Amino acid sequence: MSTPPTLTTAAATRVAAIASKQGKPAILRLAVDGGGCSGFQYRFELASNAENDDATSETDGVRLVVDPVSLDLVAGSSVDYVESLGGAAFRVENPQAAAGCGCGSSFGI
């Protein structure tokens, strides 16, 4: 079984704030799609619930859910929320990514 990704405290705090504003549960879905400048790209969205086959982790009451296909590509990762001069974004620290891109939302294996 692959190790589900985890949220940092900063990411969990941000997800909780966004979910509260939108009146949704504090569940962030991380998915991987084909495309982007390095072969795969990360996709984030608030989820209303976890599916039965999702891998789930929890940080400070916020859940991160990942579908089984995406899990193979992000197992062991951590999701952080970073604010910088270039803007604020969720960033995935993926130990499996052999290549990345400047935007940080795309990776290769």
Question: Which labels suit this protein?
Answer:
six-stranded mixed beta sheet; alpha+beta; 42% strand; three-stranded mixed beta sheet; Hypothetical Protein Aq_1857, Chain: A; 109 residues; single chain
The secondary-structure class comes to alpha+beta
Biggest sheet, spatial arrangement of strands:
4-5-2-3-9-8
Biggest beta sheet attributes: 6 strands, mixed
CATH architect. name: Sandwich
> What is the end-to-end distance?
19 Å
What characteristic shape results from the CA principal axes? globular
- In CATH, the homologous superfamily goes by the name HesB-like domain
Structure description:
- With 109 residues, the protein is of the alpha+beta class.
- It has helices at residues 9-22, 68-74, and strands spanning 6-7, 27-34, 40-46, 55-59, 62-66, 78-84, 87-93, 99-100, 106-108.
- The strands form two sheets. It has a six-stranded mixed beta sheet with strand order 4-5-2-3-9-8. A three-stranded mixed beta sheet has the order 1-6-7.
- It is globular and about 35 Å long.
